[in-house]
Amino acid sequence: xxxxxxxxxxxxxxxxxxxxxxxxxxxxxxxxxxxxxxxxxxxxxxxxxxxxxxxxxxxxxxxxxxxxxxxxxxxxxxxxxxxxxxxxxxxxxxx
Length: 95
Hints:
Radius of gyration: 16 Å
Number of helices: 4
Helix content: over 70%
Strand content: under 5%
Order of helices and strands: HHHH
Low-confidence stretches: none
Largest sheet: none
Number of strands: 0
């Protein structure tokens, strides 16, 4: 399981990305926004990752594994939200 610094790092990215999704007029979906976000923020992400390693004392291998682990969990979480939307559609009255 990731250490609290990796979790803090991921929460900041999630918050920044959510803001980017709300304000991205170029892209029609969040996948396009994700591409744009990664491209536009690579320098900041690089500095944040270096700071993460310095503050956490974790090895490169551990940081990479933790970030990939979080990505895997987030991917699985997206399916939970899709199921929740399906349940809501079937359960709630039509407007």
